[in-house]
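Task: fold both queries, return tokens.
Query 1:
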Amino acid sequence: MLSYTRTVQTIDAHTGGEPLRIIVSGLPPVPGGNILEKRDWLKQHRDDLRQFLINEPRGHADMYGAYLLPPITPNADFGVIFIHNEGYSDMCGHGIIALGKVLVEMGYVERTEPTTRICFDAPAGFIEARVEWDGVRAGKVTFKNVPAFIYARDVVVETPSFGQITGDIVFGGAFYYYINADQAGLSVKPEQVRQLIQLGAETKAAVKAKVSIVHPLEPGLNTLYGTIIDSAPQVVGADQSNVCIFADREVDRSPTGTGTSGRAAQLFLRDRLALNQDLVNASIVGSKFSVRVTESTRVGAFDGVITEVTGSAHIMSTNQWVLEDTDPFPTGFFLR
């Protein structure tokens, strides 16, 4: 008789091609007074579960996941912690869109027409999502993000392969280094993904070595998550194309929700995007998010904005993952 030491149930979805593995059963009780404390506990005590679900052979180098938790704040419906190949995220826009789709489509929340409101306690802050619901199917999801702002402008770094690169460090739920692909002689195209990964990895390392990053209101948000590389639009109907290289050389297949939020903030604060003007951002595989700046705000000493990002997700499967007591790879591996 087979003996299992772990059983985990998930729902797998994708947002614009980017996966999200949602853990709905099998997560242990997670202590902590807030989401950041809960995330820290998981890092220290149960990182084996992240590795089990994200690494090969159950996942892959570009897998992404989410732990659904009870809410922390009075107005939230759920807590959420996002996981990836390197560890844990501060926020994830494509994840919020996929969660909205799954929770409404599969009846995990009380559904209202024409939209259902779902609120999340995420490490970066409180996130409000509105999910289209016509009584039969869940449609597009729009989320109101945490305040976004430019942390540092015109940051110049030297890279081994591409020479000098200039960009802005922007917070859109996570910190990113925003650069244009033209500087490296590239475009955001699938056939150039290896060069884009190299550019993203080199610039991320260079910026981390040069700039100390700490969110002005939440010291626990203090990591450069990745590099976002934009170029002229590669698909019809988009204002630009971009790709996010994050974590350990992971490639976002979606336009990146927090990254799209940060891009709108960057353009608005540089007087290149108007209030309530829609920006359509395309991913490296051609999927699209739309975003608009809805109001100005302040984040400590920084000028900031509130954005709303809209996208679509699709459910792929429901799964039960088990771990045999004789499995030689309980935390998996990466082979690239």
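Query 1 returned. Query 2:
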Amino acid sequence: MELKIKPEEISSILKRHIEQYQVKMEAEEVGEVIEAGDGIARIKGLPSCMASEMLEFPKGIYGMALNLDEDNIGAMILGDYTQIEQGDAVKRTGKVLSIPVGDALIGRIVNAVGQPIDGKGPIHIEKYRLIEGTTPNVVERQPVKEPLQTGLKCIDSMIPIGRGQRELIIGDRQTGKTAIAVDTILNQKGGDVICIYVAIGQKQSTVASVVNTLQEYGAMEYTIVVSATASDPAPMQYIAPYAGCAMGEEFRDTKRHALVIYDDLWKHAVAYRQVSLLLRRPPGREAFPGDIFNLHSRLLERAAKLNDELGGGSLTALPIVETQAGDYSAYIPTNVISITDGQIYLEGDLFYAGVRPAVSVGLSVSRVGGNAQIKAMKKVAGMLRLDLAQYRELVTFAKFGSELDKATQAQITRGERLVEVLKQPQYNPMPVENQIMIIFVGENGYLDDLPMDRIKDFEAGFYPFVREKYPQVPKGIREKKELSEELVKLLHQAAQEYKKNFVTT
């Protein structure tokens, strides 16, 4: 078959293409790296660069503009800064740093910019959110009034946490701060709260052990882990909590409930101090930059319970701060204490004395108080704090070896039993109805004449006994969230009956 070429056809196609051809010109601002190292870069050029704008370096590395000086820009590098050299070209992106958000992240471990690091393949995300969102204003919020149960007797009874609250967990290293946070996550199983655990500046082995625990207890089904470990550059540790918060805000704004844990903000402040000093910002107290308070307040103020018009979603924050040798009056601890709605103090002395969780009742406080408790718990735990405070005072007094009258001895006996009741093993959160039942038993003196070493046995057997013989008690507390006179009568009856059998056996 012979191929015929028609010159008129070819010329008409060429003419059409020439007529349609348009020259597209795009102006692009390009800067140049003056110096780079230790997670930061100085760039000349880019006169229109915005604060916190994303900048594109060669080899697919991104940075974020922090300092906008007259003749140069100071940017922190989000990635491997060793790949960036003097003279490299830098482009503006025109966008502020955003991270992926949504349900696809649940059950995954991601880095500070939302990229998966768990080896389970890519995350298919369609929605992105600015890491620094706008904080809900006063009108958009409502008071904290729904409890967020931690499953820990000493916290749910005396230092309650509500949805939308910010409660600080503070204490020295190795006193059980992360354990409280992990127990709180485990206690949300079967509930409607999505948890986000942000690990900042920790060892990779520590993060791995937390993740293993969450997997073992089936908690990864409703948890996102954001990891910026000690081996990550300081800029990644700096943006990690903001990324975790943005992920939580997505759930809050879609009428759901989220809990975000920042572990811990002391290391976050140290990472920011490192970046700031490298950018030659003037140092202030303890060499931290002047805006360190604003850094944490703009993070923690994003936790809120939204009003019903906006869907009533909530974001609860549990920041953790590690103190150095019990110095609660240091710069970062006092800053975060003043931002949050209360704090849970953990004491090394209590921890080593076997009181775990090592919560100091005298120094811990929840500024939301009874609003974050169900009525039944409020009724039972009303006198608990006072009894324990009096016990601590009397124990100090009794050390002087003076003769104690019967009333004082009775108070010390009651206090010892209550301290024993509030002890709880790790990874063993407890449903609120069980907490109420055992605190009721302790407060009403049913444990006063039992030997100390038998109290844990009494508690272990009491729950199944009540569930079997008096099922209406736990069911009534769970459903009505109140302790009616009838339930109180049944609880007294159950305690007396079980104690009789317990003592005889």
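Both queries returned. Flag for query 2: The radius of gyration is 29 Å.
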